[in-house]
Structure formats: structure tokens, C-alpha cells
Amino acid sequence: MLCVAELLGVSPWNYFPSRGWEGGYPEIVKENQLFEHYYRELKIVPEGEWDQFMAALREPLPATLRITGYKSHAKEILHCLKNKYFKELEDLEVDGQKVEVPQPLSWYPEELAWHTNLSRKILRKSPQLEKFHQFLVSETESGNISRQEAVSMVPPLLLDVQPHHKILDMCAAPGSKTTQLIEMLHADMNVPFPEGFVIANDVDNKRCYLLVHQAKRLSSPCIMVVNHDASSIPRLTVDVEGRKEILFYDRILCDVPCSGDGTMRKNIDVWKKWSTLNSLQLHGLQLRIATRGAEQLAEGGRMVYSTCSLNPIEDEAVIASLLERSEGALELADVSGELPGLKWMPGVSQWKVMTRDGQWFADWDEVPHSRHTQIRPTMFPPKDPEKLQAMHLERCLRILPHHQNTGGFFVAVLVKKASMPWNKRQPKVQGRAAETRETSQSGPATPTEEKLSDPCELQNQTVTGTGDTEVTETPVSLENENKKDGVCGPPPSKKMKLFGFKEDPFVFIPEDDPLFPPIEKFYALDPSFPRMNLLTRTTEGKKRQLYMVSKELRNVLLNNSEKMKVINTGIKVWCRNNSGEEFDCAFRLAQEGIYTLYPFINSRIITISMEDVKILLTQENPFFRKLSSETYSQAKDLAKGSVVLKYEPDSANPDALQCPIVLCGWRGKASIRTFVPKNERLHYLRMMGLEALGEKKEELVLTSENVDDSLQPEDQGGAEPQAEPDPAVCDAVAAELPR
Prior knowledge:
Layout: H1 4-7, H2 33-42, H3 50-58, E1 63-67, H4 74-89, E2 93-94, E3 97-98, E4 103-104, E5 113-116, H5 120-125, H6 130-142, E6 145-147, H7 154-159, E7 166-169, H8 176-185, E8 197-201, H9 205-216, E9 223-226, E10 237-240, E11 243-246, E12 249-255, H10 270-273, H11 276-296, E13 297-307, H12 316-326, E14 330-332, E15 345-346, E16 353-354, E17 360-361, H13 385-391, E18 397-399, H14 401-404, E19 409-416, H15 455-460, H16 476-479, E20 487-488, E21 506-508, H17 516-522, E22 534-536, E23 545-548, H18 551-560, E24 566-569, E25 571-576, E26 587-589, H19 594-597, E27 605-608, H20 610-618, H21 629-635, E28 641-647, E29 661-667, E30 672-674, H22 678-687, H23 691-695, H24 727-730
Parallel strand pairs: 7-8, 7-12, 8-9, 12-13, 27-28
Antiparallel strand pairs: 1-5, 1-6, 2-3, 4-5, 9-24, 10-11, 13-19, 14-19, 15-18, 16-17, 18-19, 20-21, 21-22, 22-23, 23-25, 25-26, 28-29, 29-30
Helix pairs in contact: 6-22, 11-12, 20-22
């Protein structure tokens, strides 16, 4: 469920759902007799625990944060949190109340998730907590910390993602679970392009852009955001050794829209709006989405179905119906030992259906004909006791709020054993080692004025072949015979009114494009550099930004552009200098993609000390004389232009920063400057213990891709590169500097 703060583009650390904007709403009474009657009757709460259950629902939800696990800086952030900020909270009192020090979630690996009783109100108002609050805001913007509800972290963990897995997130916005999946793909930071990828989908066009913002913070070339109705998400094809084969996913996250009664602690309007009608209306959609997910799952693959609802109509009823339809093709996995420390209740095998006016039905046969449009047979448990027992519904997990002071949640893990029974035959599923064939481009992309179509246009077109019943083995050359080389554009022209945002096409750089050789030479790119994965978002005029995707996503893009509404993919790796022709290379490095690009760069790398890092991040345009002699000796013979600034930790000095840092810089006539976004600068400075310096606005001059690229330093004779701002980044405006 999308939180109001996220929808309005406000930091979640600055917004209080219970008070709106500084308390302009009347207090909502946390009572709902129908809710209590319904769940007492269904007995989902253990005997003797009802009062604790209701008391927990009426308490505010603790704030939880997660340190992004794949970045090399995760351990440094954890060290900083534990040894600086949490220590400062010990013995601290605010308004006469002792502040509890945040505690790690016992079931989350490596202490990378924490919860605290500190409310947003206390965080904002208390001068003693100002630094901690600003740390949370700034690190969240930098993508190093994610504010995420504890139970929401469970589904990605149970997916058991490996770096080679192809993953579909069916209902992804606002994106907290998606970021977890991306982190798991990048478990080994020494591999810039994992074999796997995440396709993150959402039906709401506007929420897709929120999803883009969340995913962009992690700078991965392995994420694609698409805009479709999850219940009819198109079947994609990929090129495997010259054949077109259906893309089946190794892992699918099916976190469906739900009534959200497990979120009462943070979305308190659920108290007055709750009724069983919500669940009855959503059940059909949830089942359709889960069925579509099961169709697209590879044999041996794992799908996690989850809701933030406690209602069996949205939970076990959907799973039971899906298992019954699958006729043995799906089974519930026993995951009871996979998250030690997590408390949960087993799924129920008996439940009843209640109408909004309180009428109960235990069996479909009892439902009068007049109710058949509202109540469906799939909402009831199977009648056959043996069939019901074979489903093992007790393997589902229901998380109750009072057990570990969380929200309410439901999770079921399904494993696919065979193709779904309505499939005529199961296409061959590509194995881990299968590689896509790289088709050569015969020339530069032909300019086109077409734009990607709007989702409404796409949804109004008839999508054919969305079942898994055929194997297409058409040679790729025939498929692309009439397509413009390397241009992943919109579906065939169909004049319709457009809604939402029009997207530019994705244009891969042809192999013989004269744009690339100067870049290759200037940065001495390794021969293994995957140049075919470079793309732009324009077919006309100068290419101002160059992006990269993994070869697997390139395969998906080239073979499915007429089926998919792609909102965003790829990370920016190079930006054109406004005065580029004056230098040996017209393109400078972009910080967003530097960690992906760095392993392939063999030239223009300057190794810097920790003192150099501090100077470069706090001064506008430091002259060479302000930097160490070692840095100067490396920089003095380099031609003007973009450089890589690399800090390597010194293991012999444990007090120094113990994670590597790679920065984009510019070697000017007599100085070096960095191109690093504001919050990323603050992050690095904070990791080096310079928070006070970073918090004084006058001492930290901002020169990032988002803020002030237009300054012309004196020593460079006005030849300083200027980058055209990337709208996807600029829209995600960083929090104001703390004062």
C-alpha cells in the first residue's frame, strides 16, 4: 500500500499520517465492531491473545529502517549507526520520556534492518535528535538507507534470490521490495553485470515514476520499470541462439493490491473504512494476478504471494483456488526454517465468508443466487478433506501485530513443479548458462519521430498470444526485418488520445557509430567492455546522455518493444560536455554509473588519499597545491577532461574509512573538481566523521550533476563541462541541507 508521504513526494521521515500536516485532522477513533466480530469468528488469533492483538493494532507502528545490503558502504553505515548515532541516544530523554535505542530485527540477516519507537514527531521536534533525523533523511535520499515496514521485508527474503535469477515484481510500486531484489542481484559487487535482472511492473503510470526514483538510487543496469495491468501482463520473448523463446521467470514477487487491514497501525483511516466488501471485491483481481504470475513462472521457480491483509478471503482462499486450478503443477513450500527469529502463525484451512451487513456463509451452496455476483465459489475452502489436506495451507505464514510489534501480513511461497494444465505444451526454459545471441547492427539507427505509446493506448490494444501455449521459433532476422535497427520504439502507430507521460524510445548505439571510438580511446576501455549494451533516449540531434543495460535486458528490450510499455531502464554512464569538442573526448563520466563502468576503465584513474577526498568534497575547485603530492604527480601529465578519483582503504589503519570510494572528477588547467550529487557528498563526509563540516552550508559548496554544473572556474578558462540535467534524477530533489 502506498503511503501518503510517498505519494506526495515528501520524505517519510517528515510526515505523520495520524496528524496530516501538523495536526489538521480530527483524531480517528480506533474502533470497528464489525472488524472485531469478523476476526473473532474466524479465530485467526490464538486463544487468549485477542486483547493483546487489539491493543497492538491501536499503538503506533515503530519506525523501521533497512541498510541497503549490496553497496560496499553498508558495513560502514552500520558501523556509523551503532557507534555514533545509537550511542548518542543512550540515556537520552525527550519530553521526560526515555528514548529507547533502536534494536536490530532478529530475523533479518547481518543486522541490516533496525526498528525504533521514535516517532516522526519526536525526530523532527527534538534538538537532541536533529543530527540523527538529518542522517536518516540524507542517507535515504542517497539510497544507502530505506525506510520500510518490517513485515514488508519478508517476501523478498523468502524468494531466495540468486544473482543469475530473472525476476518479475508484478505490483512493484512504491518500490521498497524492488530495491531489496536489486540488492540481492548485486550480492557480489565485483560483478558489474549480474546475469539476472528485475522487471518491476505497476498498473499506475504515476506510481511507476515513484518506482523509478526508488530504483535509480541503487544505480543498477539490471532493472526495468514497465507499466501494465499485472493480471494480463504480456508474455515476453527472448532470443536464444537465434530462436525466439518465451521468457519464464525464476522468481516472481506477487504482492497484490489488498484491503490493507494489516496496516491499521500506520493507515488509521482503515479503522473507519473497513468492511468485508473490500475483500470480496479484491479477491477476483488477486486470483487473476496470482494465476498470471504462475503462468509466467519457470518450472522449478519460486513465487511469493503476499498481502498486508489478515483476511483469509484475500489470503488462503486465493492460494487454495490457485493450487486447485494448477492440478499439482504448484505446491506450497515449507519455509518454516528460512527466517529464524520471525514469529508467525500457520495458515488456516477453514474459514467462512461474511457480507458487509454481517451475514455468514460457510459453503457456496448456501449463497443465494442474488449474491452470486458478489460472492464466488473460489472464496470458500475446498470441500474434499483429502484435497484440502494435500494443499498444506498450514505452510502459509500469517504475521500478527502483537507478536513482534509489527504490522499484519500474509505470505505464501509457491514452487512450480510442472506446466499449468491449460498449457498445450511447456516451452523450453532457458537455463542459467544460456546466453543471448548478440545480433550485429548494420548501421546507425534511422531517425524517427515516434514516441513510446501511453499505457492507456497499450491497454486498449488487443494483446494476442498472452497464454503460454505456443513456442515461437521465428529467426530474429525475420522478426526485425521491418524494424529500425536497434530502436526499441512504440507499438505500430494507432492514433489515440494519450494519457500519462510519453516516453522516448530506447536506441542502442550501433557497432559502427563514430561516437564510441574516441570514448574507448580516451578512457582506455577494456576489450571486454560490452559496448552493444550502450543506449540513448533520442533518435535525433546530438546524443547528450549514454546509458547502459545488462545484455539480458538488452535482449528483452530488442525483442519486446511492441508489447511493453517501458517507463525506464539503464543507468547513465556518460554525459556530453557542452564544450566537448575542445577536449579529446566529448563525454564525461557520470557518478550515477561509475561503479558499473569503473571495472572497464584502464586510464585517467587517480588514486587519492582520505585527506584528498575531504578536500575534493568540501571545496569548489581545489588547486593542485591543496592536494597531496602523490595525487598531483598522477594528475599533472593528464590532459584536461574527465577523470576517475579512487580511494582505496588502508587495512593497516583501522581508524580510516574501510570501504573503497570511486568518484567522478574533472581535471582542469590547474585544479580538480568532483561531480557528485549533494547527498552522496554528505554520505561520504559523514562516513569519514565530518558531519559538522558537511552540515554547514557555507563550508560545503555543491557542484553536482543536479545542482550547479554551470559554474565556470577561473583556472579552466571557461571550458568547464556542463551536463544537461537528467529529469529522472532532477525530479527526485534531495532534502535541504541541515543547518
